[in-house]
């Protein structure tokens, strides 16, 4: 009789590695340590199994081929350069129009480059229901890919009316009035906001950032279909060069000869705790026999909540961290992940991991309470801090990804540096939360030595300076004597 | 490149049969019609594939072997008859005690007989998280079984405290103070009620029956572990003979030489619309080559909401339906399904189907809005009426089950009988909802001829008579002249 699969218990000190399926093993890290299923180095570099598997006691030859994207082929929904674009644009001009808000355009961007492969457009109801109930999609060949957040487009009653019997619509950026894409073979179905929110966020409490911004006042219908994006989505904010598509990232990893790619998702400034983890991961991958593990430092570039540091400042900060030598530019690719942020904890972390598979990452670093936040109306965190990494280790469709959970890093007041938290001398450690970090920078106070490289910290202080209204900014007050 | 699986669109008139996976085909019914994947009768009788598969154009030989239970072997958690029982009972007396409410005992019953196979006790956190996020459990061999509702046991702070470091607890029925079971290798974890409710019901609106009864005032911790049930759960309500375990049902089906078992879950009196569907299903299974399809008429016997007809009256009504010849006793097994009712729509219908696989059913009939109810605070149904059957057809772990969705039956005022609703002459049909049916019976009014067999209807009227308080009951009022 088959027994239930055992998943690692992240509250124990010992590593509980195990076989997840016939096809795929999964490499596990624990409390800052990466450990592998077989002590003699049998791990799964990629799902296409080009790497030679170890036989008893033999070292594995690590292949340089990248992990296969979900569905086998990276989806690319941008109309090829050339006369077709003009043709499509003119075709679109005759179609019923659906207006896109900022976040909708971000999803068009995400879909167009294949981050959500094999999804080819906004979800129809069959995809939507599978996402809500199973966090995964079944493919025609019976295999399963992960898909945990609904990628949907809402329309209101009037728009639905105006579409009538048309099987196609033009998607138009409301801010520019520019046609962005054509959605074909459309399906319109009910937008049950309450159910979608409850099943995605595990709460219906008011005040969740994405819901307030993108769902609350959206229409009562969802429209799904196949997307053709007229031309690549650009933001013209000086950062488009950092917005590498999954195909471009794969090209870059191949150019660099990466034999392992480990992704680090973030939406905050990089402090030395993060850096410790990333350098430690690389060191261990090298120890395990990889010759050239490449870090994908992958800040989220879409919608974030109002008190997060804006993308442009975060990018400046990340640049300083590389300039200051905290991370090694030779083994690091910094790029922007175009997705908006849901703050949906264990549900969203699956999306963050899945999208990185499509970009070629076969190792994914996951920390405490990924994509978590405070409960909007109760005095507690919305999600259990351990659920993110647990759910990630169990998620259907992510078996081919090596999940690297890690112990939280904190400031060690004895060693005067960021280090992995040691519960046996817990009083030596200082936890500096995102809120605490922001408050320090806002007040132009310095964090303890070794928390963040000085160049990076200065960027943060500059950011908060730029926010301070003139009348309360000391620099300006000095210039205007009372 | 793999493409997304297409699921049948139940709003169309045409059947969209398709292959779900390499291993399993799925038989589909549509608008009261059962259709099969290949017109030359290639369908999947059971997952253990004992039946000979059709080759091109040849008729398949249908085997009598029943569908395999989830996990390969039916779980049985009752301590074997004999001295071990007394031993276990004495062992339990020395353990910390956890008190069970009525619904907890119903879950012990469900677990003990293997309805939730391969689950061997109340869920630990790893099972709980997989249920909440994926509605399924991964087994050690990498395969997946369906598991959509959390089967959990809540304890309060004081009970947690009293358990201390013990690895085992005794489960005690609070109503009788009798030891029911031992739970071993226990794991205690947080009971985040809001998240569990949101992800299971798709709403957190107050007033849902199961939540009010079993969750709202329950403790802040969940306790999981392996269950050993001292002796079979009995209710001593005169109906225990109807409570066949999955093993007993399988024995019965084999005794009868069933070559197909089709299950009908219900928690309402059987009207002729239900009967039409069941007899029609049998007719079509016979047409398709089965020699002896057996109906499992399977009323739910656990907790139901206050305005549902109680089990004892429903059983009387079902008995009348068989006596009156509406259903054929020779091809029908009436038994009680011991699970409590969640009223959790698309999430719960998966549980209802999965449990019947374990009882040997390989066909499952699903109607409009299964396990649905009105939204507790808004004027609408809680779930989309089509989502239940759609989600069921997509659900991981249910691929081996043949899902038989059917068109709603209604009273045809022209034919003066229950028939499948024909939208082309919709004004001829009268919809008699559960509420309407109950109101008619309560007022001792008769439904239209042909809605329900007279014997069955009389049981309903008798039930409502038995409820009416003496002062408003005409029979009693006559006896007490004003």
Tell me the helix content of chain A: 25-40%
Rg from Cα of chain A? 23 Å
Task: List low-confidence stretches of chain A.
Answer: 10-63, 473-482
- Choose one word for the global shape of chain A: globular
Strand content of chain A: 15-25%
Mean pLDDT of chain A: 87
Q: What is the rounded distance between the termini of chain A?
A: 83 Å
- How many E strands of chain A? 17
Largest interface: A-B, 59 and 59 residues
Largest sheet strand order of chain A:
3-7-8-9-6
Assembly type = homodimer
Structural classification of chain A? alpha/beta
Total of DSSP H or I helical runs spanning 4+ residues of chain A: 14
Report the biggest beta sheet of chain A as strand number plus sense, adding barrel if it closes.
5 strands, mixed
Subcellular location (chains A, B): Plastid, Chloroplast
Family (chains A, B): Belongs to the sulfate adenylyltransferase family.
Domain Sulphate adenylyltransferase catalytic (chains A, B): 241-462
GO molecular function (chains A, B): adenylylsulfate kinase activity; ATP binding; sulfate adenylyltransferase (ATP) activity
How are the secondary structure elements laid out?
Two copies of one chain form a homodimer.
Chain A lengths: L27 E3 L2 E3 L47 H11 L3 E4 L1 H11 L12 H10 L1 E3 L5 E3 L7 E2 L1 H7 L5 E5 L4 E13 L2 H9 L7 H7 L5 E9 L16 H10 L4 E7 L5 H16 L5 E7 L11 H13 L8 E3 L10 H14 L4 E4 L20 H8 L7 E4 L3 E4 L4 E4 L8 E2 L3 H9 L11 H14 L6 H6 L3
Parallel strand pairs in A: 3-7, 10-11, 10-13, 11-12, 13-14
Antiparallel strand pairs in A: 1-2, 4-5, 6-9, 7-8, 8-9, 15-16, 15-17
Main location (chains A, B): plastid
Family (chains A, B): Belongs to the sulfate adenylyltransferase family.
EC number (chains A, B): 2.7.7.4
């Amino acid at each position: 009789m088959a027994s239930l699969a055992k998943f690692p218990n992240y509250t124990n000190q010992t590593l509980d590695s195990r076989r997840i399926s016939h096809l795929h093993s999964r490499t596990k890290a624990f409390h800052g340590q990466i450990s592998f299923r077989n002590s003699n180095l049998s791990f799964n570099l990629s799902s296409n199994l080009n790497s030679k598997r170890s036989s008893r006691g033999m070292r594995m030859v690590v292949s340089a081929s990248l992990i296969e994207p979900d569905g086998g082929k990276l989806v690319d929904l941008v109309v090829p350069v050339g006369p077709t674009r003009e043709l499509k644009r003119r075709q679109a001009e005759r179609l019923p129009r659906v207006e896109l808000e900022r976040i909708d355009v971000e999803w068009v961007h995400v879909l167009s480059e294949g981050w959500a492969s094999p999804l080819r457009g906004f979800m129809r109801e069959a995809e939507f229901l599978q996402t809500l109930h199973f966090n995964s999609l079944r493919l025609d060949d019976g295999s399963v890919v992960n898909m945990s957040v609904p990628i949907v487009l809402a329309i209101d009653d009037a728009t639905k009316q105006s579409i009538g019997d048309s099987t196609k619509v033009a998607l138009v950026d409301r801010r520019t009035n520019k046609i962005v894409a054509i959605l074909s073979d459309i399906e319109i179905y009910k937008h049950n906001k309450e159910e979608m929110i409850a099943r995605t966020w595990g709460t219906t409490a008011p005040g969740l950032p994405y819901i307030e911004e993108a769902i609350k006042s959206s229409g009562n219908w969802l429209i799904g279909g196949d997307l053709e994006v007229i031309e690549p989505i650009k933001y013209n904010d000086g950062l488009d060069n950092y917005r590498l598509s999954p195909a471009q990232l794969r090209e870059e990893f191949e150019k660099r000869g990466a034999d392992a790619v480990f992704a680090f998702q973030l939406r905050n400034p990089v402090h030395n705790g993060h850096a410790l983890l990333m350098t430690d991961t690389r060191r261990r991958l090298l120890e395990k026999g990889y010759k050239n593990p490449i870090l994908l430092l992958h800040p989220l570039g879409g919608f974030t909540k109002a008190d997060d540091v804006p993308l442009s400042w975060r990018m400046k900060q990340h640049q300083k961290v590389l300039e200051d030598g905290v991370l090694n530019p030779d083994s690091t690719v910094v790029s922007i992940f175009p997705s908006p942020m849901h703050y949906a904890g264990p549900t969203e972390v699956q999306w963050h991991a899945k999208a990185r598979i499509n970009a070629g990452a076969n190792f994914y670093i996951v920390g405490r309470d990924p994509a978590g936040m405070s409960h909007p109306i109760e005095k507690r965190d919305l999600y259990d801090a351990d659920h993110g990494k647990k759910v990630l280790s169990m998620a259907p469709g992510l078996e081919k990804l090596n999940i690297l959970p890690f112990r939280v890093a904190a400031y060690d007041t004895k060693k005067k540096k960021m280090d992995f938290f040691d519960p046996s001398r817990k009083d030596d450690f200082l936890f500096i939360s995102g809120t605490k970090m922001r408050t320090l920078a806002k007040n132009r106070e310095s964090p303890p030595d070794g928390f963040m490289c000085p160049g990076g910290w200065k960027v943060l202080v500059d950011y908060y300076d730029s926010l301070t209204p003139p009348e309360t900014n000391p620099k300006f007050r000095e210039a205007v004597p009372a």
